[in-house]
Write a structure and sequence with these properties.
There is one protein chain. This protein has helices at 7-30, 37-61, 64-94, 99-130, 134-151, 159-171, 204-227, 233-245, 247-254, 264-285, 306-342, and strands spanning 184-191, 194-201. With 343 residues, it is mainly alpha-helical. The protein has a two-stranded antiparallel sheet with strand order 1-2. The longest helix has 37 residues, at 306-342.
């Protein structure tokens, strides 16, 4: 589908997105603060409108098919990015990152995520171009991830980085206090009854390592998922950029509320399972593996259209979000009734 869009449009689009990210980064560094709910809401809405406008441009410059692929890919990546926020909240709380520094930390995490996903996109595109059977692997992995997503506990996301953090703490000297976003700081310690000035690492190193590990884990989920919707590296990348651009502001907008979106995890699991099945069906339709049907394509295998994918993705997000809001309201009523009963 990459040929449906002019090369000049792709170059201009990537250049504009790069400028927006640079300006966003500059604003974070120039004015570190805790955004208000109103400010966060305006940024999140602005980025969402920008994505809608971009999808409209693709429709007029390219065609309806590639525009639908962008919207389906963007919504899929956005839902997975929201899931990423659950872990970001845990990391910020676990390392007690000061609120005024969280914007800068999140921006660094998002930049790392974009770089890592760009690498995964290039690798994924190369694999797909050379080996069509890779869709079997992508599909099976997404179905496995969906099952894991549905049954995991709230703390399981931390296990991988916890082992790494514990290993690092035993081998390097790290202070208990921050020095802005600097990785090293000067401290005065007692050695042999004398005060000695030493250069030590700050907890910021552990925060960035945790974010990097998280980004890698989520890249393994998100890239195969969007390749199940489109095989255009350009659409895959810009969908990821738009999904991640408003993530920092969404973190402050939702705040502690994100932990209460109980059913969102199941909605994401449905999306991953659906795309996993779609990839396996596509692989069977274009089969080349010799031990499946003698290496021949399987006739009669249904192909799930991008339009159907978009409907399923929107429905999964909407239903899980509404169910989460319903559960929050029910729990709040139960808590108030319990409090009034005790009085």
């Amino acid at each position: 589908m990459d040929g449906a869009l002019p090369f000049a449009f792709e170059v201009i689009s990537l250049s504009v997105l790069l400028v927006i990210l640079i300006v966003d980064l500059f604003l974070v560094v120039w004015r570190p603060h805790v955004p208000s709910m109103r400010e966060s809401a305006l940024w999140v809405t602005g980025y969402a409108l920008l994505a809608v406008i971009f999808g409209g441009l693709i429709f007029f410059i390219g065609d309806a098919q590639i525009s639908t692929e962008f919207f389906a890919g963007w919504l899929t990546e956005y839902s997975l990015s929201i899931d990423n926020l659950f872990v970001f909240v845990i990391i910020m709380a676990r390392f007690a990152v000061p609120p005024k520094m969280q914007q800068e930390v999140l921006m660094i995490g998002i930049i790392m995520a974009l770089v890592l996903r760009a690498i995964f996109i290039l690798l994924g595109a190369a694999l797909i171009a050379s080996f069509s059977w890779v869709f079997y692997i992508f599909g099976a992995f997404l179905i496995y991830t969906a099952i894991h997503q549905a049954v995991r506990s709230g703390q399981q996301e931390e296990e991988t980085e916890n082992k790494l953090i514990g290993w690092l703490r035993k081998r390097i000297s790290i202070t208990d206090t921050y020095n802005g976003i600097k990785l090293r700081t000067t401290v005065i310690v007692k050695e042999g009854g004398k005060s000695v000035t030493k250069r030590m690492l700050t907890p910021m190193l552990l925060v960035l390592i945790s974010l990097a590990v998280t980004d890698v884990i989520f890249a393994f989920d998100s890239i195969p998922a969007i390749f199940g919707i489109t095989t255009s590296p350009f659409i895959v990348f810009v969908a990821n950029v738009f999904a991640l651009m408003g993530l920092r502001q969404l973190y402050f907008l939702l705040g502690g509320l994100i932990k209460k979106l109980h059913y969102l995890t199941y909605g994401i699991a449905v999306i991953l399972a659906f795309i996993g099945v779609k990839l396996v069906l596509h692989a069977l339709h274009d089969n080349t593996l010799p031990f499946i049907n003698g290496g021949e394509h399987l006739d009669g295998i249904p192909e799930i259209s991008t339009e159907v994918s978009l409907i399923v993705i929107v429905a999964a997000i909407a239903v899980s979000a509404l169910a989460s809001v319903w559960k929050m309201r029910r729990d709040d009523r139960a808590e108030k009734e319990s409090a009034s009963t005790k009085k």
